Input
Amino acid sequence: MDGANGEEFAAGCILAIKTTLGDEFEGQIITYDRPSNILVLQEGTTKPGARRNLRLLKANYIKDFTLLGRGEDPLDPKKCFIDLAAIQAREDAAMRQAEIEAERIGVGVTAEAQSIFDALSKTLPVRWDKTVIVVMNEVRVCSPYLPDNVSGGTPAANERVKKVLEFERKRLQARSPGQF
Amino acid sequence: MNVQQAVAPRSSANGFSRRRVDRETGARMDNRTHSGKPSSANFGNSGKIIQVLLVVPPLPSSNKLLITGLTNGSKIGGVAGPSRDRLIYVLTYLVGQHVEVLVKNGSIISGIFHSANADKDFGIVLKMAQVNKDGSIRGQKPINDIVKRPQTMIIPSRELVQIFAKEASLSSDELMNGHSREKRKDLLIDSVISHSHQVEVERELERWTPDEDDPACPELENIFDRTWNRNWDQFETNETLFGVKSTFNEELYTTKLERGPQMRELEIEASRIAREIEGEETHDPHLAEERGINFHENFDLDEESRYSAVQREVDDGRYEENEGSLLDACNAEACGGSSGSVVSRSYSDVLSKKINNEASKKVNSEAQTSSTFPSVDEDSHILADKDIHVSGSTDHATQPTSNSPAERSSFMDDENRLDKKKTKDQDVEKSLLNECTDRVASEQAQTSKSEDVHPSVHVKGLPPGATTYDPSSSVPGNKCPADDTSDSAISGKLSSASETANPSLRPGSSTSSTSECVGAGSVSGGPGLSPSSSVGSLSSEKSTLNPNAKEFKLNPNAKSFMPSASLRPHTPVDGSFYYASNMPAVPHMHGIPVGVGIGPSFGAQQPVVYNPQAAPLQSPQAYIHPNGPLYGQQMILGQPRPVYYMPTYPPVSSVFSPLILTAISVSF
Output
């Protein structure tokens, strides 16, 4: 970005930006780093303490921007402390969470299968075994995950899984006609 | 400064595959990696996408690098400045947060922000990253898109367009609180439990459009625009659709409006009165709000106190004025007959009870139904009838007229009561139901007795009184000496009205006269009520004072009461007990000297008036404050009462006054 823009990118200014990719948003400048050409914006309500969205945008993708106003610097240089331990902990927690969720995702299964899995998981304990959905550790549902593919387990459990599967399929169908 | 590169190429497969590798990055890493892992550059030479198996070094070290980066930020590489510092700060802050990264080809990759290469050009590393939206394929995902497991991804700087972190606030407070939030994250919340984010997103929503021009949907936007001109009559519709006929007759619920030639004048009069009432100054913030008066007094009234909380203050000035002036107007029997609400038209109740039960019922119903003070009805009746029958459609003094002459004669006998009631009836807001003043009653009785001739005078007095709305205007025949405030003037008017009504009763009873009498009361009641309307509103506020209690006058001769050992602890007044005191309780209380409960010590002796004639006595409506002096209640019997006393809440010292009791009994 040329220098002229840099002057306008003072901290606290509120801009409305259009990107070359077609996104539009407004935000308040936190900082602009010229060497890396990254503009850091914060969006959201002006209420202090409210959680706001943060955007780091490469300035060369800005197609167009308008200066909406000048606010005060959202960052108080004296107050910017980072508790690294807290950040670390946060990351660990996020990782843990993500891993748990990752477990739910079957590797190499279709999106349809995944949605069936998700739907089943709402009421039944399910897990993936490669591409087979294992319900309650006894009933297996293999591709293409039709009621006929339900096998194993006690007859009662089998029946139950079948019913749930049918129901979920119907619901998915109703929800997204044409996709399933 | 070396921000943790988080990349250490490794050839062994560990289940992760990398999307791309920036060769440059890799090289840099070779040179400067501080990570504990080996760093063999394994990637190819071309700048293209290379699948490189990388492993992310353990986190703590990345932390250290970040810290180093932070502290060294300003010193290294000639790239100085606060802006760079801020950037580093932001990036550090983002570690561990879910971010969405927009890359050059339009794809969005979401993952957990792990680190960034702040040294060079800010390539970033995302963990557990997934391509959410593949930019290369415009439109929806193909059905058989294979679901991939999340991986750690490195996004080189040149691909990077935007990093978007949702709900990441930068204030330091947030960060301090972040830890607590972290802890909270471990708590299960509903959305976590239900994994709602995993449920497939519902279909694309479309705006609803009506099918064809559905005739059943008339212009939806306009239907409520003009309520008076809706072109749709629900009653008609009901009738045609369901055969349901409406039997609504307005006059069942309100007094009949006499639409006649004088209608216009009456309307004007009514609206004038309405305007007066509404324009009154009030201290009640609720009223002020309603009337649109800007209640400037307390601007720190919050929404709650403005709109929902019950006002509990007592406007002392007004209230006491009420108390004083209304005492006279109080009618003991009226009190008895009055319904629970202090402000209600207990007058009518009272009067009716005294005179005739049936009549009272009529009156009561009327009272309840037609309660508009400055009603057109009143005015119309007043002006229309020039004779004694001041017709009014409102309730109040109906009973007398409804009575047969015989009753009326008896009524006249009990003129004390009647007058009191009438006065009271008209002084609705100021219903001090329990106490009536004998003095006033007697005076009025005399007045009414002797002034048969005066009805016309009174009548004349009324319309002017009605129209001028001048509380202070003296109405002929005002015989309420005790009233010296505007209230008294009103009650004076009212009494005169009642007096008027009295004679009017004699000539003949007809329903019309009934209503007329009522009107009489109401006429004066109309304007008279204006000032008291605010009072009424005042009393409608919750007040801790007992509006029905009499003023207390200390009896110097009273013997001081020494509680005996056997004195029962104070029991709260049993309202029901008291109310039922008329008959059953009376014999009950025989032994007790006229049950004047003085203060709590007399709790056991419920204030039952020892009154053999108490048959029609009603105490029910009297509001008995459980802890208040109980003696007030005794007085209800409508006997001329010389005793006045104020409800004193600082408990009266136990003064047992046999003299008072005797006075009471004497008065029976």
Summary: Residues 8 and 39 of chain B are 5 Å apart (CA to CA). Chain B has a mean pLDDT of 55. DSSP finds 25 helices and nine strands in chain B.
